Structure formats: structure tokens, C-alpha cells
Amino acid sequence: MYSLVIFGPPGSGKGTQSEKLIEKYGLTHLSTGDVLRAEIKSGSELGNQIKSLIEKGELVSDEMVQEMVKAFVMKNKDAKGFIFDGFPRTVAQAQWLDNMLSEISTSVNIMISLDVPDDELRIRLLSRGKVSGRQDDQDEAIINNRIDVYKNTTLPVMEYYQKAGKAKGIHGLGTIDEIFGRITEAVAL
Ligand code: AP5
Ligand code: MG
User: Fold this and answer.
1) The domain made up of 2-187 is a member of CATH 3.40.50.300
2) Of 125, 151, 158, 169, which one has the fewest beta carbons inside 10 Å?
3) Rounded CA gap, 115 and 174, in Å?
């Protein structure tokens, strides 16, 4: 099993690059943001709680996300490997992921961190907000809060993987194919 964490601030291209990684390496993709948005769409009580957090640009609780990740991994134990997109987002989630994967005798092989300046993130997200219907892309104050949450709470996850010798920083500006080229060089599978 080969598992990859794709990491970076909101709008850095995690989802976009994941699509290309799935195609090239046949890995199984898990975007916690997508799973949470599907829960919102289902109209459940849990979905309503999640909605109020996402619409403010705040994180959902570690426990809730971890439960979703565990269910997904256990359902896909025969996968060639996973792409974790938007997870882990806290150091506690990163530690939990290591423990959970060790239970099935595997681990995170590499963490790809997309580096994109804040101004570019705001441009990308506001422009997607005009067409995507994602509430959290439509208001600059919410986007700024997502960027702040990333810096304050999520960035320490990078250090966690740096210490493990698994973090690879990737310059995240350029065409989608240029960035993908940089990622495949780092992955070297
Ligand atoms: P999530 O869905 O993960 O959103 P995000 O991290 O804010 O990032 P995005 O998905 O918006 O951006 P992306 O990096 O995938 O970029 P994309 O490829 O789409 O999380 C949403 C919310 O869910 C969180 O705020 C939180 O509340 C909750 N949540 C999720 N996971 C959680 C967790 N683990 N713990 C707790 N809460 C959690 O690209 C963005 C745009 O840019 C697109 O329009 C794209 O076309 C464009 N673009 C991509 N690449 C380029 C390029 N090279 N040049 C120009 N434009 C580009
Ligand atoms: Mg995404």
C-alpha cells in the first residue's frame, strides 16, 4: 500500500491535483471536505451541525472526521493506497492517522504540501465561488478565516511530517500540468 497526504491551504489545488494522481497511480481518494459536504446534502441532523461550521470556515471536530476516515479506510482495505486530501488538518488527526494505519500494517509514505500565496488563494476561491455554489467560497471574510485556521491550526501538521522525514514542499503556482510534474518528481513511484 502506498499512501499520500496532499496538504495545503484552501484553494491550493489539493482536489485538482488529486484527480490527476488517481489517474496516474490508481490510488483511492478521500477528501474529507467532500465527505462532509455529502453529509450536509443528505439533510441529516449531523449534516446541519457540520453546515454551520463549514459556512463559518471553522473546522469540524477531530472525532467526527476521524470516524468518517476510519469507516472509509476499513471499507477500502484492498486499495492500492490512499490519497488523503484535506486530512489530517490538526496534529491530533495526524497522530490518530498513524495509529489507525498501523492497525492495518501500513503508513503514510509521503506528504505533498502545495505552497501558494494568500492573494492567489483568494482569487481562486472567489472565482470558484461565482459558479460552485460552495457557500464558503462566496465571502472574502470566510475565505480569510479559512486561511487563518490553516495557519494557526493546520500548519503544525507540516512540522509533524517534516520530523518524520515525509514532507515534500511543492511550488503551487503555474499550470495544473506543471504542478503535477513537480508532484510526480517528488513521488517517484
Ligand atoms: P475542503 O473541502 O478540504 O476545502 P479546503 O481545504 O478549504 O480547500 P478547497 O477544497 O477549497 O481547495 P483545494 O486545495 O482542494 O483546491 P482545488 O483543487 O479545489 O474543506 C472544507 C471544509 O470542511 C473546511 O473548511 C472544514 O470546515 C471542513 N473539513 C474538511 N476536512 C476537515 C478535517 N480534516 N478536519 C476538520 N474539518 C474539516 O482548487 C481551488 C480552485 O483553484 C478551483 O477552482 C481550481 O479549478 C483552481 N485551481 C487549481 N489549480 C490551479 C492552478 N494551478 N492555477 C489556477 N487555478 C487553479
Ligand atoms: Mg478540495
Assistant:
1) yes
2) 151
3) 11
- In this predicted structure, the answer to whether residue 133 has a pLDDT above a threshold of 90 is no
**pTM exceeds cut of 0.85:** yes
- In the reported structure, the alpha carbon of residue 29 is separated from the centroid of ligand 2 by a whole-number distance in angstroms of 11
Q: What's the chain's length in residues? A: 189
Q: Where are the alpha helices (H) located in 32-104, listed in sequence order?
A: 32-41, 45-54, 62-75, 91-103
- Ligand lying nearest the CA atom of residue 19: 1
Of ligand 1's listed atoms, the one at least distance from the Cα of 173 is 53
Domain ranges for the chain: 2-187
Dig out the grid coordinates for 15 from the structure.
482536489
CA dist., res. 108 & res. 131, Å (int): 34
Q: Using the mean position of ligand 1's atoms as its centre, give its distance from the Cα of residue 57 in Å.
A: 11
Nearest to 168 by CA among 116, 115, 118: 115
Q: Which amino acid appears at position 87 of this protein?
A: F
**Average pLDDT rounded to a whole number, residues 123-139:** 93
> Burial letters for 17-50: b for 16+ Cβ neighbours within 10 Å, e otherwise?
bbebbeeeeebbbbbbbebbbebbeeeeeeeeeb
The pLDDT assigned to 189 comes to 79
